[in-house]
Amino acid sequence: MASGVATVWLPVKDMKRAVDFYGGTLGLEVKRDSDEWSELDANGLMIGLNARESSGADGSGGALLTFQPDGGLDEEVSRLKDAGVSFVGDISDHPWGRIASFKDSEGNDLQLYEPPSE
Protein backbone atom coordinates (compact mmCIF):
# COMPACT_ATOMS: atom_id res chain seq x y z
CA MET A 1 0.00 0.00 0.00
CA ALA A 2 1.29 3.41 -0.88
CA SER A 3 1.03 5.91 1.96
CA GLY A 4 1.85 9.00 -0.09
CA VAL A 5 4.26 10.49 -2.51
CA ALA A 6 7.85 10.22 -1.29
CA THR A 7 9.64 11.89 -4.19
CA VAL A 8 8.96 13.32 -7.59
CA TRP A 9 12.04 13.24 -9.77
CA LEU A 10 12.69 14.97 -13.02
CA PRO A 11 15.41 14.28 -15.57
CA VAL A 12 17.67 17.26 -16.25
CA LYS A 13 20.45 17.96 -18.73
CA ASP A 14 22.05 20.91 -16.92
CA MET A 15 21.99 20.52 -13.12
CA LYS A 16 23.20 24.03 -12.31
CA ARG A 17 20.57 25.58 -14.57
CA ALA A 18 17.85 23.32 -13.10
CA VAL A 19 18.82 24.07 -9.48
CA ASP A 20 18.92 27.79 -10.30
CA PHE A 21 15.41 27.51 -11.77
CA TYR A 22 13.80 25.48 -8.96
CA GLY A 23 15.73 27.09 -6.11
CA GLY A 24 16.15 30.63 -7.40
CA THR A 25 13.27 31.29 -9.77
CA LEU A 26 10.56 29.20 -8.05
CA GLY A 27 12.00 29.75 -4.56
CA LEU A 28 12.11 26.14 -3.34
CA GLU A 29 14.62 25.22 -0.62
CA VAL A 30 17.65 23.34 -1.97
CA LYS A 31 18.39 20.47 0.43
CA ARG A 32 21.12 18.68 -1.56
CA ASP A 33 23.02 19.79 -4.64
CA SER A 34 25.45 17.70 -6.69
CA ASP A 35 26.30 17.23 -10.35
CA GLU A 36 24.22 14.03 -10.62
CA TRP A 37 21.38 14.44 -8.09
CA SER A 38 19.85 17.41 -6.30
CA GLU A 39 16.92 17.61 -3.89
CA LEU A 40 14.53 20.47 -3.21
CA ASP A 41 11.81 20.82 -0.58
CA ALA A 42 8.43 21.81 -2.02
CA ASN A 43 6.40 22.23 1.18
CA GLY A 44 7.26 18.75 2.43
CA LEU A 45 7.38 17.05 -0.99
CA MET A 46 10.88 16.21 -2.11
CA ILE A 47 11.65 16.97 -5.73
CA GLY A 48 14.69 15.15 -7.08
CA LEU A 49 16.58 16.44 -10.09
CA ASN A 50 18.31 13.54 -11.83
CA ALA A 51 21.13 14.24 -14.29
CA ARG A 52 22.06 10.55 -14.51
CA GLU A 53 19.08 9.83 -16.79
CA SER A 54 18.74 13.00 -18.84
CA SER A 55 17.23 11.31 -21.92
CA GLY A 56 13.71 12.42 -20.92
CA ALA A 57 14.73 16.02 -20.29
CA ASP A 58 13.45 17.44 -23.56
CA GLY A 59 9.79 18.16 -22.81
CA SER A 60 8.56 14.99 -24.53
CA GLY A 61 6.68 13.64 -21.54
CA GLY A 62 7.40 12.47 -18.06
CA ALA A 63 6.37 13.94 -14.74
CA LEU A 64 4.17 17.00 -14.50
CA LEU A 65 4.43 19.08 -11.37
CA THR A 66 1.67 21.46 -10.36
CA PHE A 67 2.40 24.24 -7.90
CA GLN A 68 -0.13 26.34 -6.00
CA PRO A 69 1.21 29.89 -5.64
CA ASP A 70 1.15 31.58 -2.23
CA GLY A 71 -0.61 34.62 -3.70
CA GLY A 72 -2.84 34.96 -6.72
CA LEU A 73 -2.23 33.09 -9.95
CA ASP A 74 -2.08 36.23 -12.09
CA GLU A 75 0.56 37.80 -9.86
CA GLU A 76 2.73 34.66 -9.89
CA VAL A 77 2.47 34.33 -13.68
CA SER A 78 3.57 37.95 -13.98
CA ARG A 79 6.47 37.42 -11.55
CA LEU A 80 7.69 34.33 -13.38
CA LYS A 81 7.39 36.02 -16.79
CA ASP A 82 9.51 38.87 -15.42
CA ALA A 83 12.06 36.21 -14.39
CA GLY A 84 12.21 34.94 -18.00
CA VAL A 85 9.85 31.94 -17.72
CA SER A 86 7.94 31.10 -20.92
CA PHE A 87 4.31 30.08 -20.54
CA VAL A 88 2.49 27.73 -22.91
CA GLY A 89 -0.69 29.63 -23.82
CA ASP A 90 -2.75 31.76 -21.50
CA ILE A 91 -4.23 31.03 -18.09
CA SER A 92 -7.14 28.64 -18.59
CA ASP A 93 -10.30 28.81 -16.49
CA HIS A 94 -12.21 25.68 -15.48
CA PRO A 95 -15.01 24.91 -13.02
CA TRP A 96 -12.39 23.19 -10.82
CA GLY A 97 -9.89 26.08 -10.91
CA ARG A 98 -7.42 27.96 -13.08
CA ILE A 99 -4.13 26.71 -14.51
CA ALA A 100 -1.14 28.24 -16.24
CA SER A 101 1.25 25.88 -18.02
CA PHE A 102 4.96 26.56 -18.43
CA LYS A 103 8.31 24.82 -18.93
CA ASP A 104 11.20 24.56 -16.54
CA SER A 105 14.80 25.23 -17.55
CA GLU A 106 15.09 21.64 -18.84
CA GLY A 107 11.89 21.54 -20.94
CA ASN A 108 9.79 19.64 -18.37
CA ASP A 109 6.09 20.54 -18.15
CA LEU A 110 4.95 22.47 -15.07
CA GLN A 111 1.72 24.17 -14.06
CA LEU A 112 0.47 26.71 -11.59
CA TYR A 113 -2.95 25.94 -10.10
CA GLU A 114 -5.45 28.18 -8.35
CA PRO A 115 -8.60 26.62 -6.87
CA PRO A 116 -11.97 28.17 -7.73
CA SER A 117 -12.96 31.22 -5.71
CA GLU A 118 -15.85 30.64 -3.37
3D structure, described in words:
Strands 1-4-3-2 form a 4-stranded mixed β-sheet, with helices on one face. A 4-stranded mixed β-sheet has the order 5-8-7-6, covered by helices on one side. The protein has a single domain (about 5-55, about 60-115), classed as 2,3-Dihydroxybiphenyl 1,2-Dioxygenase, domain 1 (Roll), CATH 3.10.180.10. It has helices spanning about 15-25, 75-80; strands at about 5-10, 30-35, 35-40, 45-50, 65, 85-95, 95-105, 110-115. With about 120 residues, the chain is α/β, with parallel strands linked by helices. The termini are far apart. Strand 7 and strand 8 (about 110-115) form a beta hairpin. Pfam families: Glyoxalase (PF00903). It comes from Mycolicibacterium chlorophenolicum. This is Glyoxalase-like domain protein.
